[in-house]
Design a protein that fits this description.
Largest interface: A-B, 96 and 96 residues
Oligomer: homodimer
Distance between the termini of chain A: 44 Å
Family (chains A, B): Belongs to the acyl-CoA dehydrogenase family.
Number of helices of chain A: 20
Pfam families (chains A, B): Acyl-CoA_dh_1, Acyl-CoA_dh_C, Acyl-CoA_dh_M, Acyl-CoA_dh_N
Function (chains A, B): Involved in the assimilation of dimethylsulphoniopropionate (DMSP), an important compound in the fixation of carbon in marine phytoplankton, by mediating the conversion of 3-(methylthio)propanoyl-CoA (MMPA-CoA) to 3-(methylthio)acryloyl-CoA (MTA-CoA).
Shape of chain A: globular
EC number (chains A, B): 1.3.99.41
Helix content of chain A: 55-70%
Largest sheet of chain A: 7 strands, mixed
InterPro entries (chains A, B): Acyl-CoA_dh-like_C_dom, Acyl-CoA_Oxase/DH_mid-dom, Acyl-CoA_Oxase/DH_mid-dom_sf, AcylCo_DH-like_C, AcylCo_DH/oxidase_C, AcylCoA_DH/ox_N, AcylCoA_DH/ox_N_sf, AcylCoA_DH/oxidase_NM_dom_sf
Chain lengths: 593, 593
């Protein structure tokens, strides 16, 4: 396997050249205090060293050995403890944390790129700090001051980690059906009882304590999702002086054996009258979760980017080294027994698909993260718009980046031929590890429904109109005549997306099934269109900056052209299948399947 | 995991209602003697029992335990020996074999459907008899009478198995570079020396002897693929009286650790002056291999169908049982806590994609097998045409059925949500097992080049014209007005494929890279078009036969409509990317990747 190298240059290009995030930072008091361009670059460089040198090298062995379970104790893979210690010593557990409790207060655009590095290095590893950051975010947003003071500093220090306990065996996508109970006690705490499954980092040996956020129902709670509350349940009780007390009634009953992310502890967690503390309001637990979910879901989308970037780097190195066959247009390396497989159109196709998807996803994911930053750090109309675009585009980030990321890891495996199927080369691990990102944190089908039914139809099209207006305004602003080819295609794509949306909403007014039937294709249509939008931005920036670094910017321009000619046309198929409607999906009875 | 049930009804429908293979059998002396409808149905039923009851149930454990290696000895997974014994006792190793040496002489349409069953039951298991049948076929076609007499009866009896030793570490897709040497001996035999990798069933404990077919070069052979010869190298020498003698100089140096097909022994094979016998002519080894390859490659395509069918059956059962969420168009099961996930449009989309692909692939693969049968058993113009269509469509079968099969296993895993990622449910194994079928026996990229460069461009478009003419004639013959919707779409698809082909060949005349750049998309365009052709055939047959079995034939008709409306439109994207040409693939320098 090639050594993983963080694409720092590309990250800086996206942040500062394409999106100009530093000017946004200067407009926010909190951000201006926390970060500037130099600080951000220094942070990314330090994180990159850690990801490259400490985490990436242990990924293969961690996959082979995985997590082990023995009578409630979970042991992480070799090297994980040490790597996590290095991570916390670097201060990275605090990266996005609330400065009032010891966090570094970095914007999502920075934490997201830091996430990409660790996902590329090893998705399993990235989940331990990732879940901790997510749990801490929920506590910071919805917890009482007392809870925040008691728990956040240690979570930011990384001495304690976090978990999110949502799913139960019978309740996954449909959390309204959960059965875990929380019974109020006289001291204001609750006793939580129930069984949770698929709990990432629910139990392990890398931290002194684990802070579980648990969805449960009060005895008198309304049925369904309106009766769900959120509780903080520590693995080990924390005394008032902050020291650790006795063990709580929480145990890990088993770990799952999975297709991939073998080094991630996926736990069955049993709460047997465990003491917990309400986070946020009673019966508003799902809303509290959703605050955090926008951040988490982008993070899962980024797992797709990380795995695909790693796979691309490996595939590119292999393709350059491997000699096999001759170029169709004449021998390229007459002195060698064969040409490098880089000469073959189909190998270039696979590599360029990966390159165009990876760089497009990185830029688009940073653009979406930027909307979250506006929603968090800006004010007034800017904040509202950021909030709206983040709501619209978060399901896109989660599902689209993992779908094209998975496609890319499969392509990166294919470049290796038979060697791609053999474990020692690492390419097959990336396929297996990436696959889960399409499933957890709300399956990609759920994301598609979130996008189309909740966000687009739920706003009567207003959210999509908002994005389309922005995108059209941008297209209209591009005046460089050398970019005409892109401008015309993107303008058409935006018009088509608008038309498809309006027609779909009209049909859905008569038949709600139109939404569920079209959701997946609609999400992809939006994905290709939004990625074309960000590729045009990159093409424009690189055209402007060409002379500064011709090889880099030519590569961007050529990859943009590849995207427009070879990947954006997939939208034609999607439009046709969306327009075909729901009838063929529902006109067949269940027993005819 | 659901119990696997062989879709016998669908197989019979394809064979006799859709393709009317029995009338073809009656026109061939050899086939009329070997098989009729009743015999064929009895064979498929018996094979089905074995696949369902003996092989499918051991697949999960075989994946967990896999093949083990100890100092040259390879031990197969628990139950494999017994299942293989039951298989050989059923006589199935002889199914497609030459009757002169104890084979049953069945046509490919029957052996192919038998292959699907065992692939669905367990791809790893299917490889042991599959490789044996392939090796026996090569010997039967190209071996001397002496070799045939000595080796075929035991291979047909299943007491000996076979392997194909092609790949070397530095020579996979490019076999011209192999280094294995064969030195002629005075007695007419050869001493074979070299190392082969990725040798399926190269060593194991299920048979008394293993007959390796080995590609090697004579000391004075021309360079490249014109200097390759084929040798039969037994693991254990066979005495003139047919008894086993001493061990040959063949050893297994290691087995590979892989993403999937854990129960298939993928061996490093070392030949250290092993005694071998020439098969066919000197320096014509690759041609000998290619005879067999059409049969083998369809077989690998069928692995995709088998895995996808198994995944579909599991996913369908799960979707019917799993309750989660409510229907968009109103509660469907008011007495249950939630509706079955069959109510969700996106779940139906995934299941219908699988159903349309599986049934379409089964029918199309049987149609292609029928062309092979014409090439083998017919004479004159019929034979020539069968030969031409088989040559054209074999790479399609291998690559298209494994590509859509892989997509289907991924969809079948997605239907399970988080449970799809957990090993115990079996869905993730099908993804891992199916994945190899896109890689081995010539990667799907190689298949695409075989189709476009060798077959289509190599015949100056004549082979594609032949198929298009046939398909257009069929479309013109469909007169039922209720089928107009399909007829119009397919006619357009055929016209577009013709136009795309002609334009592509014109461009390729100026720039050969056009072929490699378009090959993958072209193969898929042909695949969707050919599958539409076979779905129209099924729609027509089912419309005619509707009253005999309304539920079955309605299901076919509705699935045909689903295919035309929801899957065939993918061709629009493919046409656009093919028409975009090779420029964006080659206009970027290697160091800009």
């Amino acid at each position: 396997m090639a050594e993983y190298r963080v694409p720092l240059k590309d990250m800086n290009y996206v942040l500062f050249d394409v999106l100009g995030v530093d000017s946004m930072w200067q407009g926010s008091e909190a951000l201006a205090e926390a970060v500037d361009k130099d600080t951000a670059q220094a942070i990314l460089e330090e994180c990159a060293k850690l990801a490259e040198n400490e985490v990436a090298p242990i990924s293969r062995e961690a996959d082979e050995i995985g997590v082990t379970y023995d009578q409630g104790k979970v042991t992480t893979a070799p090297g994980f403890k040490e790597a996590f210690q290095a991570y916390t010593e670097g201060g990275w557990s605090a990266l996005g944390g609330d400065p009032e409790y010891g966090g570094m207060g970095m914007p999502k655009v920075i934490t997201a790129l830091h996430e990409e590095m660790f996902c590329a290095a090893d998705i399993s590893f990235s989940l331990y700090p990732g879940l901790t950051a997510g749990a801490a975010l929920s506590i910071a947003k919805h917890g009482s001051d007392a809870l925040k003071e008691k728990y956040l500093p240690n979570m930011y220090a990384g001495t304690w980690t976090g978990s999110m306990c949502l799913t139960e065996a019978h309740a996954g996508s449909d959390l309204g059906m959960i059965r875990t109970k929380a019974v109020p006690q006289e001291d204001g705490s609750y006793l939580v009882t129930g069984n949770k499954i698929f709990i990432t980092a629910g139990e392990h040996d890398m931290s002194e304590n684990i802070i579980h956020l648990v969805l449960a129902k009060l005895p008198d709670a309304p049925a369904g999702s309106r009766g769900i509350s959120l509780f903080l349940v520590p693995k080990i009780h924390v005394n008032d002086d902050g020291s650790l007390g006795e063990a709580n009634q929480v145990s890990c009953g088993a770990i799952e054996h999975k297709m991939g992310i073998h080094a991630s502890a996926t736990c069955v967690m049993n709460f047997d009258g465990a003491k917990g503390y309400l986070v946020g309001e009673i019966n508003k637990g799902l809303a509290c979760m959703f605050t955090m979910m926008n951040f988490e879901r982008i993070g899962v989308g980024i797992q797709g980017i990380g795995a695909a970037e790693r796979s691309y780097q490996n595939a590119l190195e292999y393709a350059k080294d491997r000699i096999q066959g001759r170029s169709l247009s004449g021998v390229k390396s007459p002195d060698a027994a064969a040409d490098s497989i880089m000469v073959h159109g189909d190998v270039r196709r696979m590599l360029l698909n990966m390159k165009a998807f990876n760089e497009g996803s990185r830029a688009l994911s940073t653009y979406i993260s930027l909307q979250l930053d506006y929603a968090t750090f800006a004010s007034g109309a800017e904040r509202e718009k950021g909030d709206a675009l983040a709501a619209l585009m978060t399901p896109l980030a989660k599902a689209f980046f993992t779908d094209v990321g998975f496609e890319s890891t499969v392509a990166g495996q294919q470049v290796f031929g038979g060697h791609g199927f053999i474990r020692e080369w690492g390419q097959e691990q990336l396929v297996r590890d990436c696959r889960i990102a399409q499933i957890y944190e709300g399956t990609n089908g759920i994301q598609a429904m979130d996008l189309l039914a909740r966000k687009v139809a739920g706003s009567k099209g207003a959210l999509m109109d908002l994005w389309l207006k922005d995108a059209n305004a941008y297209v209209d602003s591009v005046s460089d005549p050398s970019l005409t080819e892109f401008v015309a295609d993107l303008r058409q794509a935006l018009t088509d997306l608008d038309t498809v949306t309006k027609n779909l909403l009209l049909r859905a007014a008569d038949n709600a099934e139109e939404l569920g039937s079209a959701a997946n294709d609609y999400l992809h249509l939006f994905g290709y269109t939004a990625m074309a939008f960000i590729w045009l931005k990159m093409a424009e920036v690189s055209t402007t900056n060409m002379e500064q670094d011709p090889a880099f910017h030519q590569s961007k321009l050529k990859t943009a052209r590849y995207f427009f000619q070879k990947l954006l046309p997939r939208r034609h198929a999607l439009i046709a299948t969306i327009d075909a409607g729901a009838e063929t999906l529902f006109d067949i009875e269940d027993d005819m399947f």
